[in-house]
Every structure is written in C-alpha cells, then in structure tokens.
Amino acid sequence: MAVIVRGSQLARLLGQWHALPGRRRNPDYAALAGAVRGLLADGRLPLGVRLPAERELAEALRVSRTTVTAAYRSLRETGHLTSRRGAGSWTTLPTGHQVASSGLWTAETAPDMIDLGYAALAAPPELVPAARAAAEDLPRFLQHAGYYPTGLAELRAAVAHGYTRRGLPTSAEQIMVTSGTQHALDLVLRLLLPAGAPVLVESPTYPNALAALAARRARIATHGLATTAGDGWDADLLLGAIRQDRPRLAYLIPEFQNPTGHLMSVELRERVVAAAHASGTDLVVDESFVDLPLDGTPVPPPTAVFDRHSRVISIGGMSKPYWGGLRIGWVRASAPLVQRLAALRVGVDMAGPVLDQLVGVHLLAAADTIVPARLAQLTAQRDALLAELANVLPEWRVTVPHGGVTLWAELDGPISSALARAAEESGVRLAPGPRFGIDGTLERFLRLPFTLPVPVLTDAVRRIAAVRYDLDRTSRRQWREPAMIA
Fold this sequence. Notes:
The chain is an alpha/beta fold.
C-alpha cells in the first residue's frame, strides 16, 4: 500500500510556492509543478507516495482545479508523476535519474588530501593512558578463552549506567557490545528484518545504514526531513507513513541527525513509539551523536523511555565522542532480545576484542573529562567552518546545528556530485548529497563535517569555493571510484 499525502500536508510542504524564483514569468500551473519537482529533488517529498486528488489539492491551495490538473499533467510529462485512471498519481523520477546507495570506498587517502567524507574526530589524548591501563587489566582474562558474545561485563555495566543517567533505567543484561555501531545495526537487521521487508528511513540519512538495508534487500520508503531550522521532522507525515505503510522496521536518528543535525522533540518521540506499537513496527534508534550537544542544548530523554512493548532497539557507540578506531558499539534492548542477538552473532564474528573493550571501560570512566573537551573543540571548529562559508560562499544556506559533527549545506544549485568530482582534483574529498538518499535526489545539498582542525577546514572551504566558481566555466565530467563515507 502506497503512503498517501493529503492535500493539507502537501500544501504545508509547498509553503509559499507563489513566491518561488521565476514565478512572475510562469503561469500558476507551471509554478506549482516546479515547486513539486523541487520538493522531489530535495528529498522533502519521497518517491512512490500517492499525491492528493486534484480537487482536494485545489481546495487546500485555494486555486482552481484546472491549475492543479495542468500541474499534474506537466509533472507526468517530465516524468515526475505516474498516474493510473481510478487509482491515483504517484511521485517518480524521470527515467535514468535513479541511483542506488553504495558502500564502495577508496582504499587509502592521499597524504595531502583533505578528507571531508569522514565525520569523526581524531583520538583524544586520554586514549594512550586508557590503553596502558587496559593492558594492565588484561592478565585477569588470559586464563579464559576470551569469547564474550555479549561483551565484557564491566563494559556492559558502564554502558547501562550511561542509559540510567539519561533517565532510562537499564541493566547490563540489556546491553550487547558490538564491533562498532554499524555492526550493531547489521546484527539487528539480520535478526528482525526478513529479506524484502518494508523499511522506513529518513531522507537524508546515514549512507552506510542504507547499504546495510540494501544488503537485506529491504523495500525502503523515506520520510523527507526539512532543511531549515527547527525540529526537522514533519510529525503528520512521519506518523502517517508508519500507520499507512506499516513498515516492518523504521531506522531513525533522533539526536543530531546525520547529516542534518536535527534534534527530535520529546513529544514526537513519544508519538512515534505509540505509532510503531500500533503498526507492529520495530524502531531502531541510532544514538551515535547523543553525547555531542553543543551550545548547552538540552537533549531529550532516550526514545526508549516511552517504550512499553519492547519495540525500541537503541544502538550507539564510542566512534563519535571518542575514537572510530576503537570499534566499540552496542545494542540496548530487552534482555531476551540481547540473548537472541548473541546467538546470532556467534555465526558472524564470535565476540569483540577483549583489550579494546577494556580500553572502552577506562575511556567511559573518564567521560566527564573527555566529552567536555570534545564539545569545546567541536564548537570552535563548527563556528570557524560557518564563518568561512559565510565569507567565501555566502550563496549557500546552512542551518547552525546545535549538536553532532556535521553541517548540511544547501547549495546554490543542483551541483553536489559535480562539485565533489571537481573538488577531489583540488585535494578535497566531499560527501555529495545523493549519497545520503536512495533515489538520486539531494543534488542541492552537501554534508560538511567540522571534525578537522580549524586551519584545515578553512583551507578546505577556500579550495571548495575556487572549484565552485570554476564549475560555471567548465562542463568537464570525470568518473571516479566513490569514497567511503562515515
């Protein structure tokens, strides 16, 4: 069953469509069709959803039905709408414009390459002392086989304590330690998602999550996020998608969403959990960035606080606040589900490294020292990146994120992929917008992490600006292997 967008919902998404550029030169129907195409190109309006009937949309927009009829006809002619008599009209993209997400990467980054594909910090200075302390703890475990499918008891207890501090009482039995957050997601999908099952994700979203879903041959539907300041999620459309499509699973990033930086409200978290329970949908909540609020932004309680039916599976890890090379992640779920995940895991990788987990224990014990320093570092780097963008690329629109590690920049045209190809020749690796979607849209957007030192970020922006202005004078196109995005 296709998700249906009501007339009032589409009217809200269209906003002030009368005031769009070129409006005075175009008749009403052309302006309306152009606005709908813009929503599709930006990922705000997903593909495969059924648009309202002509009369319903005309009433919602307060225009004549003739205007809507002509706009729908224009959209069909350009390949953005498919209609069938008596059944309705569905959003599509023109033939040849659809692309799939990819998990490919280049093997190594050149020494002089500024890599903005990674949204992760270098290791903190506390890592080396933590590693030394972990090595001293290691003899306690050497008389055993070293296989702990659910993770070391000390680390599970430390992670559980973190959830309890955030207002979600959690026992160690509800925690399973994994080899990173991506591993946690993969195990959850293996257990809960049958091949070919329907899944709901945000658009844009984390590319490697899309790759994991593609490996399960999931039927992916999207909920388009707003690009401007505010909550980001359209509650009406998100809850409607869950209720109508009844996905087997929904993957959400409510804390400083990757890549947009949005923070989901308390009210919407509660309503999403209730809708998921009513629809039989499991919620996989990615909390990778929950420890990184900037500007003193208060973080709502975990989404699982509202779960009374074991529908919420939380995943997280140490890659973003600590170090990606540590490869420590976890799943927080009901104790029986954790045991089922452990039974599944032994057919994949048996267990995680004991020494790495001991390092994780010592780093979490020092969180009150490490995390504030990280937040100060990220704040300074974010502000420097914003200032340089405003200075040399003032045409780009960027909403200031109050957490996480990335900016989601709206460019001055649908040039993201072309810009990324050209920037690599100037020594900057970028993550273009389409990599964060499933259908070739988001060409007007670019993810820019602020995880590198200020001088490097400043240099990168100046190189990007030079490349951007060169794009207007060249049409050269070259193909390259896609780089890994994290």
